[in-house]
Amino acid sequence: MSSPAASFAPGVSPCERIEVLFDRLSELSGQLNAIDGRIVEIVAEIDQDGLWGATGARSVPALVAWMTGVSPRNAETVVAIAQRIEEFPRCAKGMREGRFSLDQVGVIAEKAADGSDEHYAQMAAYSTVNQLRTAIKLEPRPEPERRPEPARSISKTADEQSATYRITLPHAEAATFDAALDSHRDALITDWKRDHTDGDPDGVAAQAPPKPNTVDAFMSLIETGWDADVARRPHAQRTTVVVHVDLETRVTALHLGPLLTADDRRYLTCDATCEVWFERSGQVIGSGRATRTVNRRLRRVLEHRDWRCVVPGCGATRGLHAHHIVHVRREARVFRSEVRDLRCSAVTAAG
Questions:
Q1: SS3 sequence, 53-102?
Q2: For 256, which DSSP code?
Q3: In the chain, where are the structural domains located?
Q4: What is the pTM for the complete model shown?
Q5: What is the spatial distance between Cα 46 and Cα 82, in angstroms, rounded to a whole number?
Q6: Could you read off the pLDDT of 95-142 as tens digits, one per residue?
Q7: DSSP class of residue 112?
């Protein structure tokens, strides 16, 4: 078999030979481009009508690679052009006419923006594949649609005994919440271990309360934030308890809150700044005293005498409250009863 160069006469110059070879190469390249254009049209018809599903192939690129014997990458290029053939009709026409190669149109179909068919049809006439790829990289991109802010919500359901809260936070804010909660839980556990040691001489540690959990850490986080708000706004004293009392039924309720049992009422109105509003038939008729706090001197006496929580099994030494063993209202009734008895005795003695 003779080489292509053997077809030239001995007297033909190299320039003439290269021109002839270029002409043959252009002709064959045009035919190859036209064949690729026809293959793209066939693949587009197979893809649009869903005919490839009956072939058993896993995908359209797999079908193209199987039928044409090209590499998987070239098969993906053919499918990319076929899927956007209606968006780039001028580029597809140039490939059918043999002017554009499969790789040139493939780069445009894979990366170019919508509505750029005419621009790249003109540019592909004098640009290489690399030049087209660079031009597409420099193409101004549309601004992405602004993603909506993540949902944030707090919902509450309550029954006769408790309330349940459901909090939804974005991931960034949830991470902050988790870190704060972990910090307070670690602090509470550290204090709990300090108050309940194995070497306790009174055996308090043997009856120690449960180790602080996440709920305790959450309440500590709330109280700390409230204390900071009180320091910033002294008028928003967090220990103020607003209570409404119906004088006829003796029913007590928190302001904008639930009804209170007798034990809860006594606990909340002890060692606190409170506002007690008296009502009759749903109408406010007056208010009670606004202070039921233990003064500093008495608190020092209690701390020196007890030095820890006196609730059996607790033994904590920090974060303590001062409460009446006999509630102040009961003490007042007993005092008034004793005064009445003394008055009666005095009247009897005088008579």
A1: HHHCCCCHHHHHHHHHCCCHHHHHHHHHHHHCCCCCHHHHHHHHCCCCCH
A2: T
A3: 14-137, 327-351
A4: 0.41
A5: 9
A6: 888 889 888 998 988 888 888 888 888 888 888 889 888 988 888 877
A7: P
